[in-house]
Amino acid sequence: MQSIKNDKKIVRSWAMFDWANSAYNLVITSTIFPAYYTIITTTKEHGDRVNFFGFNFVNTALANYSLAVAYLIMAALLPLLSSTADYRGNKKSFMKAFTYLGSLACMGLFFFRTDPSTHSFNPGVLELGIICSAVAAMGYIGGVMFSNSYLPEIASVDQQDKVSAQGFAYGYVGSVLLQIICFVFVLKPELFGITDGSFPARLSFLLVGLWWIGFAQIPFSVLPKGISNVRENQKRSVGSGYHELQKVWNQLKQMEVLKRFLYAFFFYSIGVQTIMLVAASFGEKVLHLGTSKLIATILIIQLVAIVGAYVMSRLSRIIGNTKVLILVVFVWIGVCIAAYFIANEYQFYTLAAVVGLIMGGIQSLSRSTYSKFLPENTTDTASFFSFYDVTEKVAIVIGLATFAFIEEQSDNIRNSALGLSIFFLIGLILLFVLQKYQSKELK
After folding, report:
1. What percent of the chain has a predicted confidence (pLDDT) above 90?
2. Does domain 1-226 match CATH 3.40.630.30?
3. What pLDDT score does 157 carry?
4. Residue 233 pLDDT
5. What H or E segment, with its residue span, contains residue 58?
6. At the N or C end, where does the chain have fewer CB atoms within 10 A?
7. Between vectors from CA 106 to CA 275 and to CA 70, what angle results, nearest 5°?
């Protein structure tokens, strides 16, 4: 595999996978689907309550519960699947399977609509929409994990940051390009003779699936299938992912700085990841902004996020990673409190700009901080980052479930936003403890 490292054609094809699947993250997770879902599941007769397989839920809570289940399933499966792929040397097959699963689920959302004559769901349609959105999330998570695992194979250590950034750039350009195409259909349906109000959004879901599955053929045709890693103890090979996680946890117990950081990361990630997933549905439910304004807001957030990541990277060199994280988590607490009191769309835009500024930075800084805290003699970095990824997925499950539960119990999504501040507060306290421990270590 050494011979393919830093090959420009292979690197470009790998980056095209981000181009292909990032459309899901922007259109389905962040903009059009959350707004569309919230609008069509809110009726004069039932308000924001829906029936799912005979059980009654608040509409946005149901969507968040379904995503929580999807992330929980993937958090449990990924260690098993990754170790199986390593053992058999067929990671590209898993990458393909998750891509087809996710893209077909997005296409399935095209049929998620109310009956035009009754403005209510026909039997099974709501269930179809929820299941397809959850399965699409699972496809995205699995595809990204196997795509990330190619990085050490296609790039030398000194080129991995550059290659990773190239993938991010391709993903950003690809997702924004498709978002703009969808935006035209949503804003100007009359230009295409569209009279069905639900069609532009549903067409967007179909286009995401086609875009995802279509452009993914580029990396599928170029990337190697993987290397078989047959071990002496073959009985443990398939389940070795779980053994690796256990081994990492045992090692972490002896690494005080890394362990303390991971505790803090877990709690503030609960808040960060949840806000990223629920921002659009929150804006629609609280302020009724409409799809077009939400799309514009998310695009602004993405642009500001690039600036935020750069600023935090520079600031971390001056005052250190932990102090920057403390500052950023403090701002996140302010965001949760402000969301509770938000009253108009201009306040929402301002809040969105702040979220964008701190969103990209805290993600990139968290990963680099984790990497810096790894001991210099650590050779099995893949296992440590697998543990990091599972930690993040579990945090998302807790965050989404908590957000949904608070809304269900209080019937007010503002309370859910305020409730997330508790996780940020715990994370902030743990970061202060980490900073104090680091200061003590330097003396």
Report:
1. 39
2. no
3. 66
4. 45
5. strand 55-58
6. C
7. 50
CB 136 within 8 A of CB 23: no
Q: Are 112 and 28 in contact (CB under 8 A)?
A: no
**Residue 392 contacts by C-beta under 8 Å, 6 or more apart in sequence?**
265, 269, 273
The number of CA neighbours under 13 Å toward the Cβ of 50 is 27
Q: Which tokens sit at 135?
A: 């399965």
- Which residue matches tokens 């403090």? 330
Which single residue is written with the structure tokens 């799912």? 52
- Three-state secondary structure string covering 101-132: HHHHHHHHHHHCCCCCCCCCCCCCHHHHHHHH
Contact (Cβ atoms closer than 8 angstroms) between residue 423 and residue 268: yes
Residue 52 pairs with which residues in a beta bridge?
55
What gap in Å lies between CA 352 and CA 157, rounded to an integer? 36
Distance CA 237, CA 85 (A): 10
> Are 183 and 31 spatial neighbours (Cβ–Cβ below 8 Å)?
no
Strands 55-58 and 49-52: antiparallel
Query: Tell me: the pLDDT tens digits for 397-439?
Result: 999 999 999 999 999 999 999 999 999 999 999 999 999 887 7
Which CATH fold topology does 247-443 show?
Answer: Growth Hormone; Chain: A; (1.20.1250)
Q: pLDDT tens for residues 7-54?
A: 889 989 998 998 999 889 888 887 889 889 988 998 888 888 999 999
- pLDDT tens profile 112-140: 998 888 878 888 999 999 999 999 999 99
Residue 2 confidence (pLDDT) above 80: no
Instruction: Show me where the domains of the chain are located.
Output: 1-226, 247-443
